[in-house]
TrEMBL record:
UniProt KW keywords: Membrane, Transmembrane, Transmembrane helix
Lineage of the organism: Bacteria, Bacillati, Actinomycetota, Actinomycetes, Streptosporangiales
Species name: Streptosporangium fragile
Chain segments annotated as transmembrane: 48-71, 78-99, 111-133, 145-168
The name this protein goes by in its record: Uncharacterized protein
């Protein structure tokens, strides 16, 4: 300490960087979490016309982890009954997939899978943000809605990127990543940085 002045321990005092607004931090964390869930299913829906099972199972894993945590800890009042049902929907989808007749197919199960992913991802984002981010509950409703809107916007953009993948990706890009080539992909070499 020089001349009896105390040092400011806040991040604002470090290297002259401004402190990040807690509302921005909570809204950005909620948006980022939601986009991590929705971007790949939306992209594959655009590129292949299908949502891959691994994306739906990723949503199932996260939703089930939160659901089981709530049941094990016997937490009440954190979520409404609708929130608990929303967390159970991915498990309901799996049960339906197991009991659905395979010989004639259960066409509508695929539609449930699409709805579960595209509607469930923003809903799951909201639920997880409410549970996992301490600052989220203190956000004004407008900020919380913006976080969900950003998640939905990234989902729509990812769908469009999948639909028009031939504008910036080639069939070789899909091959080299281990994915099947979608219909209508562009011929050419894969993208390389060097």
């Amino acid at each position: 300490m020089v001349g009896g002045a105390s040092r400011d321990p806040s991040p604002k005092g470090k290297r002259g960087l401004p402190e990040i607004d807690p509302a921005l931090r909570a809204a950005a964390a909620a948006s980022a979490g939601g986009t991590l869930v929705i971007w790949w299913p939306a992209f594959t829906l655009g590129a292949y016309g299908a949502i891959f099972f691994d994306a739906v199972l990723a949503i199932w894993a996260v939703a089930t982890a939160v659901l089981l945590s709530g049941l094990v800890l016997r937490t009440r009042g954190v979520l409404s009954w609708g929130g608990w049902v929303a967390l159970a929907l991915p498990s309901i989808w799996i049960v339906l997939a197991v009991v659905a007749p395979r010989t004639h197919g259960f066409r509508y199960l695929h539609y449930f899978e699409v709805v579960l992913t595209l509607v469930g991802a923003p809903t799951l984002t909201w639920l997880l943000s409410r549970i996992l981010l301490p600052d989220y509950a203190e956000l004004p409703e407008r900020h919380r809605l913006w976080a969900v809107a950003v998640t939905i916007a990234v989902g729509v953009l990812a769908f469009l990127l999948g639909k028009f993948n031939y504008l910036f990706l080639t069939c070789a890009d899909f091959d080299i990543s281990g994915d099947n080539t979608p219909p209508g992909c562009a011929d050419g070499p894969p993208f390389h940085l060097l």
